[in-house]
Each structure stands twice: as C-alpha cells, then as structure tokens.
Design brief:
The chain has helices at 15-30, 49-59, 64-74. It has 75 residues and is an all-alpha fold. It has a domain at 47-75. Helix 2 runs antiparallel to helix 3 (64-74).
C-alpha cells in the first residue's frame, strides 16, 4: 500500500513533533528564569535599609532632617 512506509519518503518527519514537545516543556518548566518567556524577574539580593533610605531621600519623599535622623537610627 505505501511503498516507502508510513511516512513515505520522509521518515525523519516523525522527529519534529518530538522536538516541538521538548521545546514546549522547556519553556513551561524553565520559563520563569528566561527573559521573554513570561516569567517574573527575581532579585539576586534584598536591598539593605540604608539603600532604601538613600533612594527615598533621592526621590524627595523625606526631608534632609528626616534622612539624617533615620540614618543615625540605622547606625
């Protein structure tokens, strides 16, 4: 009935669904760490209280006096 088997002259065509499945599984299970895969970014470390204080002062959220008092409290 089929002289060249089930896939005809392209027996290697059966590999493409397997490759697609492997790539799909990689995106699903490792996607959180890859950019562009819909995963979320994780921070490498937590910010220190001093870094947060410095950033708040730089944005103008707190006054100079508040900044100096909080910095003194942290030290």
């Amino acid at each position: 009935m089929w002289p060249n088997g089930w896939w005809g002259p392209f027996p290697w065509m059966g590999i493409f669904p397997l490759i697609f499945l492997v790539v799909l599984l990689l995106f699903l299970f490792r996607g959180a760490g890859w950019p562009g895969c819909g995963g979320h970014r994780t921070r490498d470390r937590e910010e220190s209280a001093r870094e947060i204080l410095d950033r708040r002062y730089a944005r103008g959220e707190i006054t100079r006096e508040q900044y100096q008092q909080m910095k003194k409290d942290l030290d």
